[in-house]
Structures are given as structure tokens and as C-alpha cells.
Amino acid sequence: MTTYRELLLTVVLVALIITINAGSIRYTPERKQAICSNNLRQIYAATISYCQDHDGTLPLYLYRRPKKWTYWYNRLLNYIDSPSSFYCPSHPKGKMQFPEDQRDERDELLPVSLDDWYLSYGMNSNLAQDYNPARPTSPRFPFKLQKITNPGHVVGYGDSNTWQLRANKWNWSKDYLPCHEGRFHVVFMDGTVRSCGKDNLSLMHAFDGWSEDTTQWSNWKD
């Protein structure tokens, strides 16, 4: 017959094992993918809210101010619940914001301010303008959300080594980051998040096993 002391010892040992393993099981590949997908949905929702406040205009992906450059994510900060939505736990830098030994669930999504060094996502560079007010030849013109043709086919944001996604043969290797078991996550401009690779995504140019389909990156109504 099991004594009370033996039962208590068993309970304590089980609790100890759970505590020891809590950090290691918290961020499984599946959970990392779920967090990343939710982040991209949050970024998409923030983009829609931004557009609603700016006559349908998508945020500038780069604004070259004389003293300080600002980026698309700076413009979305006021529209997103937490800066942690810009960090992916599978990203080489972003994962530093998700310590494995963290025990307090309430503190899981840290920090509370944005540090763009840990930024995990890039914006499709064909969706918005790189604007330089110091150049007379750099006219500012709006990219309107409602002018995107077939939004469910057009890339919005995705896992990236940089703050942008440039789907051309010169820059793709710099931005492309297959950090989810050889694939990367993309949110399309209808809010759909997909796991992407060479089998279901095309680029602006065909090269290195990637097929060409410019409409996945730039598809505007006249």
C-alpha cells in the first residue's frame, strides 16, 4: 500500500520534473510557428488600421528624414498591441527576446518597447515607397491598399534577415530567412498566413530554383 509520505514524494518529484522541463518544452517548433503566425496577423491588422486612418495609404517602408530615418514598423507601433509582435522566437535575433529559462508566464512577451535590432520581419518593398524628401526627384505618391489586385496572392510581410523583403535576384539572399524548419512565414494582403518555400512562392525573377511571378509582389489596379 502506498503511504502518504511516498505519495507526497511522488508529487514533489513530478512537480520538480515539470519545473525543470518547463523552459525546454515551452518553445517547441510548433509553438514558435504559432507565435510567428500570430505576430504576422497582428502586423497585418495594424497595417489595415493604419490605412483606415490615412485614406487607404500603406505606410512608407522607408522615410529618409534628414536627422533620423524611420521605417514601416515605426509607423505601425501605435496600431499594435505589443512590440513583441515584431519578434519571432525562431529568428536568430528575435529569439533572444524569448529566453528558454523564463518561468513567469506573465512576462513571456517581453520587452515592452521596440528594439529594432531584434526585428524579425520584413515588408514587401514593392508595397510602399522609399521616400527621400531631400531629393527633388523623389516624389511622394501614395500606395493605396484598395488598389492591390487579388490581395490573397500578394505578399505583405514575412520572416526576414532585414526590415524588408526584396524579391529580386540581387537582394533575395540577403533578406530571405527560412527559419521554420527550412521554410518561412508570410502574411498575404488578405490576412492569410502561409508557410512558404520554392514550392508555393515565386519571386520577381526566376533564379536558383525560384520561379517567376511578379504579381505575388507587385499587382496594382490601374
List the helices and strands and how they pair.
Layout: H1 4-26, H2 29-53, E1 62-64, E2 69-71, H3 72-76, E3 121-124, E4 130-131, E5 155-159, E6 164-165, H4 172-175, E7 184-188, E8 193-196
Parallel strand pairs: 1-4, 3-6
Antiparallel strand pairs: 1-2, 3-5, 5-7, 7-8
- Radius of gyration using CA atoms only: 21 Å
Number of strands: 8
Strand order, sheet with most strands: 6-3-5-7-8
Structural class: alpha/beta
The helix content is 25-40%
> SSE order, as H and E?
HHEEHEEEEHEE
| Mean pLDDT rating | 84
Q: If helices are DSSP runs of H or I spanning 4 or more residues, what is the number of helices?
A: 4
How would a crystallographer describe the biggest sheet? 5 strands, mixed
Q: Distance between the terminal alpha carbons, to the nearest Å?
A: 81 Å
